[in-house]
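subagent[fold] <- orchestrator: predict structure for attached chain, return tokens only, no commentary.
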Amino acid sequence: MFTTNFRITNLECEACVKLSIGALQEISGVDDASVELKTGLSKVISKRQLVWEEIVNALKAIDKTVDKIHQ
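subagent[fold] -> orchestrator:
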């Protein structure tokens, strides 16, 4: 299993969270996704290593922007 952490920078409400989780779960190989409304902190657990652009494009499709978290 692979974990990818990042921040969604323009969340406004619970509907944004639900849309974001739904978009992330549509990425091939994603098992689980979580998004925190107040901070935008987000996590995806997947069966394979995701390409960063997959996350960016999935969220861009619902007008969300994302920043990498450097660990």
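orchestrator: received. Logging for downstream: The helical segments are 14-25, 52-60. The first strand starts at residue 2 and ends at 8.
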